[in-house]
UniProtKB/TrEMBL annotation:
Protein known as: Cardiolipin synthase N-terminal domain-containing protein
Transmembrane annotation, as ranges: 36-57
Keywords: Membrane, Transmembrane, Transmembrane helix
Source organism: Jeongeupia naejangsanensis
Lineage of source species: Bacteria, Pseudomonadati, Pseudomonadota, Betaproteobacteria, Neisseriales
Taxonomy, superkingdom: Bacteria
């Protein structure tokens, strides 16, 4: 294998490793999401790293998912279920 090919392989492996570490350190995702993203990175070398890396960058300003908040609000109905949208079906303006 030529020196150029080895350099390219090292570059790709470094990219995958860098994005994998970023995913593992992220507070945006739960453990299963992190595992699936790292799996995607290594099953689709370069493409997976670019896709997951771009997604991480796009979500970097998003607040982390708070599982405790969801568990504390079990009495809130799921989106679209029993939510009053402010319109009365019998009221005509």
């Amino acid at each position: 294998m030529s020196g150029f090919a080895v350099a390219i392989l090292l570059l790709f492996a470094s990219l995958n490793a860098l994005v994998s570490v970023a995913v593992c350190r992220s507070v945006l995702f739960d453990r299963m999401q992190k595992a699936l993203q790292v799996l995607l990175i290594w099953l689709l070398p370069v493409i997976g790293a670019v896709l997951v890396g771009a997604f991480l960058v796009s979500q970097s300003s998003t607040a982390p998912f708070d599982h405790a908040a969801v568990e504390a609000n079990d009495d809130i109905p799921p989106l679209g279920c029993g939510v009053d949208d402010g319109h009365d079906a019998h009221h005509h303006p």
